[in-house]
Amino acid sequence: MNYKYRVGCSIENLKGVRDFIRKSLKAHHVPDLEISEMVLALDEMCSNLMIHAHHCNANDLFELRIIIDKDKPYIIFELVDDGTVFDINEFCEPSIDNIVHQKRKGGLGIRLVKSIMDKIEYKASQGQTVCRLTKNINK
Amino acid sequence: MIHIKRLQEDGADVIAIIGEIDASSSIELDLAIAKSVGEGYEKILVDCSALEYISSAGLGVFMSYIDEFKDKKIAMVLYGMSDKVANTFQILGLDELLHIAKDKSEAKAMINELQV
User: Fold this and answer.
1) B63 neighbourhood in chain A, CB within 8 Å
2) Within chain A, where are the H helices?
3) What CATH number has the domain bearing residue B60?
4) A2-136 has which fold?
5) Interface predicted TM-score of the whole assembly (ipTM), two decimals
6) Is B55's Cβ below 8 Å from some Cβ in A?
Protein backbone atom coordinates (compact mmCIF):
# COMPACT_ATOMS: atom_id res chain seq x y z
CA MET A 1 0.00 0.00 0.00
CA ASN A 2 1.34 3.43 -0.94
CA TYR A 3 0.29 6.76 0.54
CA LYS A 4 1.21 10.16 -0.88
CA TYR A 5 0.97 13.64 0.60
CA ARG A 6 2.02 16.83 -1.15
CA VAL A 7 2.92 19.64 1.16
CA GLY A 8 3.94 23.30 0.88
CA CYS A 9 7.12 24.34 2.68
CA SER A 10 5.53 26.33 5.50
CA ILE A 11 6.24 25.02 9.01
CA GLU A 12 2.55 25.67 9.74
CA ASN A 13 1.95 22.54 7.61
CA LEU A 14 3.86 20.20 9.94
CA LYS A 15 0.70 19.37 11.90
CA GLY A 16 -0.92 18.13 8.67
CA VAL A 17 2.16 16.01 7.91
CA ARG A 18 2.02 14.40 11.36
CA ASP A 19 -1.72 13.69 11.07
CA PHE A 20 -1.21 12.10 7.63
CA ILE A 21 1.52 9.77 8.96
CA ARG A 22 -0.49 8.81 12.06
CA LYS A 23 -3.61 8.05 10.05
CA SER A 24 -1.74 6.01 7.42
CA LEU A 25 0.18 3.91 9.96
CA LYS A 26 -2.80 3.37 12.25
CA ALA A 27 -4.66 1.78 9.35
CA HIS A 28 -1.93 -0.89 9.33
CA HIS A 29 -2.09 -1.55 13.06
CA VAL A 30 1.41 -0.28 13.78
CA PRO A 31 1.83 0.03 17.60
CA ASP A 32 1.22 3.55 18.97
CA LEU A 33 4.71 4.05 20.43
CA GLU A 34 6.35 3.12 17.13
CA ILE A 35 3.99 5.45 15.27
CA SER A 36 4.94 8.30 17.58
CA GLU A 37 8.67 7.67 16.98
CA MET A 38 8.24 7.60 13.20
CA VAL A 39 6.12 10.77 13.33
CA LEU A 40 8.88 12.46 15.32
CA ALA A 41 11.60 11.47 12.81
CA LEU A 42 9.54 12.56 9.78
CA ASP A 43 8.57 15.83 11.45
CA GLU A 44 12.31 16.55 11.82
CA MET A 45 13.10 15.63 8.22
CA CYS A 46 10.22 17.70 6.85
CA SER A 47 10.96 20.74 9.01
CA ASN A 48 14.65 20.60 7.96
CA LEU A 49 13.61 20.49 4.33
CA MET A 50 11.13 23.37 4.74
CA ILE A 51 13.46 25.61 6.71
CA HIS A 52 16.92 24.92 5.26
CA ALA A 53 16.24 23.94 1.64
CA HIS A 54 13.12 26.05 0.95
CA HIS A 55 13.40 28.90 3.49
CA CYS A 56 9.76 28.26 4.52
CA ASN A 57 8.38 29.24 1.10
CA ALA A 58 4.81 27.90 1.18
CA ASN A 59 4.70 27.84 -2.64
CA ASP A 60 7.49 25.25 -2.84
CA LEU A 61 6.09 21.74 -2.68
CA PHE A 62 7.55 18.34 -1.88
CA GLU A 63 6.00 14.92 -1.63
CA LEU A 64 5.98 12.52 1.27
CA ARG A 65 5.38 8.87 0.40
CA ILE A 66 4.75 5.98 2.75
CA ILE A 67 5.26 2.48 1.37
CA ILE A 68 3.88 -0.36 3.46
CA ASP A 69 3.98 -3.98 2.34
CA LYS A 70 2.18 -6.20 4.84
CA ASP A 71 4.63 -9.04 4.12
CA LYS A 72 7.71 -6.94 4.84
CA PRO A 73 8.99 -6.24 8.38
CA TYR A 74 9.71 -2.60 7.60
CA ILE A 75 8.08 0.63 6.48
CA ILE A 76 9.61 2.96 3.91
CA PHE A 77 9.20 6.74 3.89
CA GLU A 78 10.31 8.82 0.93
CA LEU A 79 10.71 12.59 0.73
CA VAL A 80 10.69 13.58 -2.93
CA ASP A 81 11.94 17.07 -3.64
CA ASP A 82 13.55 19.13 -6.37
CA GLY A 83 15.40 21.43 -3.97
CA THR A 84 18.92 21.34 -2.61
CA VAL A 85 19.78 18.19 -0.77
CA PHE A 86 21.06 18.16 2.77
CA ASP A 87 22.44 14.69 3.41
CA ILE A 88 22.14 14.08 7.13
CA ASN A 89 24.51 11.11 6.85
CA GLU A 90 27.29 13.62 6.22
CA PHE A 91 26.26 15.84 9.12
CA CYS A 92 28.17 15.35 12.34
CA GLU A 93 25.59 16.18 14.98
CA PRO A 94 26.79 18.16 18.02
CA SER A 95 27.17 16.31 21.31
CA ILE A 96 24.43 16.78 23.91
CA ASP A 97 27.02 18.55 26.13
CA ASN A 98 27.76 21.08 23.37
CA ILE A 99 24.06 21.71 22.87
CA VAL A 100 23.65 22.46 26.58
CA HIS A 101 26.74 24.63 26.99
CA GLN A 102 26.26 26.61 23.79
CA LYS A 103 22.55 27.09 24.59
CA ARG A 104 21.74 25.78 21.13
CA LYS A 105 18.07 25.21 20.42
CA GLY A 106 18.86 23.11 17.34
CA GLY A 107 21.02 20.08 16.67
CA LEU A 108 18.88 17.50 18.43
CA GLY A 109 16.70 16.69 15.44
CA ILE A 110 19.24 14.83 13.34
CA ARG A 111 20.33 12.85 16.38
CA LEU A 112 16.67 11.85 16.86
CA VAL A 113 16.22 10.80 13.22
CA LYS A 114 19.39 8.68 13.31
CA SER A 115 18.29 7.06 16.60
CA ILE A 116 14.82 6.21 15.31
CA MET A 117 15.33 5.20 11.69
CA ASP A 118 17.24 2.07 10.65
CA LYS A 119 18.45 3.28 7.26
CA ILE A 120 18.72 6.70 5.60
CA GLU A 121 19.56 6.83 1.89
CA TYR A 122 19.55 9.49 -0.81
CA LYS A 123 19.22 9.06 -4.54
CA ALA A 124 18.75 11.42 -7.47
CA SER A 125 16.46 10.58 -10.35
CA GLN A 126 14.89 12.64 -13.15
CA GLY A 127 15.88 15.96 -11.60
CA GLN A 128 14.45 15.02 -8.24
CA THR A 129 16.06 13.97 -5.02
CA VAL A 130 14.60 11.15 -3.01
CA CYS A 131 15.47 10.73 0.65
CA ARG A 132 14.44 7.25 1.70
CA LEU A 133 14.09 6.33 5.36
CA THR A 134 13.53 2.74 6.42
CA LYS A 135 12.11 1.72 9.77
CA ASN A 136 12.09 -1.91 10.86
CA ILE A 137 8.93 -2.77 12.75
CA ASN A 138 8.05 -5.50 15.21
CA LYS A 139 5.24 -7.58 13.81
CA MET B 1 -2.03 24.49 17.92
CA ILE B 2 -0.52 25.27 21.31
CA HIS B 3 -1.83 27.03 24.38
CA ILE B 4 0.32 27.94 27.32
CA LYS B 5 -1.18 28.88 30.68
CA ARG B 6 0.75 30.21 33.63
CA LEU B 7 -0.41 30.25 37.22
CA GLN B 8 1.36 30.64 40.52
CA GLU B 9 1.18 28.07 43.28
CA ASP B 10 3.11 27.93 46.59
CA GLY B 11 5.75 30.33 45.27
CA ALA B 12 6.30 28.34 42.09
CA ASP B 13 5.40 29.36 38.55
CA VAL B 14 3.38 26.60 36.91
CA ILE B 15 3.56 26.56 33.11
CA ALA B 16 0.91 24.31 31.57
CA ILE B 17 1.44 23.30 27.94
CA ILE B 18 -1.66 22.30 26.01
CA GLY B 19 -1.36 20.81 22.52
CA GLU B 20 1.61 20.09 20.28
CA ILE B 21 5.04 21.76 20.25
CA ASP B 22 6.90 21.73 16.95
CA ALA B 23 9.14 24.05 14.94
CA SER B 24 6.27 26.50 14.43
CA SER B 25 5.21 26.73 18.08
CA SER B 26 8.37 26.19 20.17
CA ILE B 27 8.89 29.97 20.34
CA GLU B 28 5.81 30.24 22.56
CA LEU B 29 7.28 27.81 25.08
CA ASP B 30 10.54 29.75 24.98
CA LEU B 31 8.71 33.03 25.64
CA ALA B 32 6.76 31.55 28.56
CA ILE B 33 9.91 30.25 30.26
CA ALA B 34 11.76 33.53 29.57
CA LYS B 35 8.89 35.46 31.15
CA SER B 36 8.95 33.27 34.22
CA VAL B 37 12.73 33.78 34.59
CA GLY B 38 12.32 37.53 33.94
CA GLU B 39 9.74 37.79 36.71
CA GLY B 40 12.26 36.26 39.12
CA TYR B 41 10.75 32.82 39.78
CA GLU B 42 13.23 30.33 41.21
CA LYS B 43 10.85 27.39 41.04
CA ILE B 44 9.31 26.51 37.68
CA LEU B 45 6.94 23.58 37.30
CA VAL B 46 6.03 22.52 33.77
CA ASP B 47 2.69 20.73 33.54
CA CYS B 48 2.94 18.34 30.57
CA SER B 49 -0.32 16.47 31.22
CA ALA B 50 -2.00 18.06 28.17
CA LEU B 51 1.17 18.06 26.03
CA GLU B 52 0.30 15.80 23.11
CA TYR B 53 3.54 15.99 21.13
CA ILE B 54 6.97 17.56 21.34
CA SER B 55 9.53 17.73 18.53
CA SER B 56 13.25 18.43 18.87
CA ALA B 57 12.50 22.16 18.59
CA GLY B 58 10.65 21.94 21.92
CA LEU B 59 13.27 19.69 23.51
CA GLY B 60 15.89 22.25 22.43
CA VAL B 61 14.08 25.00 24.34
CA PHE B 62 14.31 23.06 27.62
CA MET B 63 17.96 22.18 26.94
CA SER B 64 18.91 25.77 26.23
CA TYR B 65 17.99 26.82 29.78
CA ILE B 66 19.96 24.15 31.66
CA ASP B 67 23.14 26.22 32.15
CA GLU B 68 21.30 29.47 32.84
CA PHE B 69 19.19 27.76 35.51
CA LYS B 70 22.31 26.37 37.17
CA ASP B 71 23.90 29.84 37.25
CA LYS B 72 20.76 31.53 38.58
CA LYS B 73 19.88 28.68 40.97
CA ILE B 74 16.50 28.18 39.32
CA ALA B 75 14.91 24.74 39.65
CA MET B 76 12.64 23.40 36.92
CA VAL B 77 10.65 20.17 37.09
CA LEU B 78 8.50 18.75 34.30
CA TYR B 79 5.61 16.46 35.23
CA GLY B 80 2.56 14.58 33.96
CA MET B 81 4.02 13.35 30.65
CA SER B 82 2.24 10.69 28.61
CA ASP B 83 4.28 7.59 27.70
CA LYS B 84 4.75 8.87 24.14
CA VAL B 85 6.07 12.27 25.23
CA ALA B 86 8.27 10.67 27.92
CA ASN B 87 9.70 8.36 25.27
CA THR B 88 10.76 11.37 23.17
CA PHE B 89 12.87 12.66 26.07
CA GLN B 90 14.28 9.17 26.70
CA ILE B 91 15.42 8.54 23.09
CA LEU B 92 18.14 11.16 23.49
CA GLY B 93 18.74 10.59 27.19
CA LEU B 94 17.36 14.03 28.06
CA ASP B 95 15.46 12.50 30.97
CA GLU B 96 18.91 12.28 32.63
CA LEU B 97 19.62 16.00 32.16
CA LEU B 98 16.22 17.43 33.09
CA HIS B 99 14.18 16.86 36.23
CA ILE B 100 11.06 14.88 35.40
CA ALA B 101 8.40 13.78 37.89
CA LYS B 102 5.39 11.52 37.51
CA ASP B 103 2.77 13.93 38.81
CA LYS B 104 2.30 17.32 40.43
CA SER B 105 2.80 16.22 44.03
CA GLU B 106 6.02 14.38 43.15
CA ALA B 107 7.12 17.45 41.17
CA LYS B 108 6.52 19.75 44.15
CA ALA B 109 8.49 17.47 46.47
CA MET B 110 11.30 17.27 43.91
CA ILE B 111 11.51 21.02 43.37
CA ASN B 112 11.66 21.69 47.12
CA GLU B 113 14.56 19.22 47.43
CA LEU B 114 16.35 20.87 44.49
CA GLN B 115 16.01 24.27 46.12
CA VAL B 116 17.63 23.15 49.41
Assistant:
1) 96, 99-100, 104-105, 108
2) 14-26, 32-48, 96-101, 108-116
3) 3.30.750.24
4) Heat Shock Protein 90 (3.30.565)
5) 0.88
6) yes
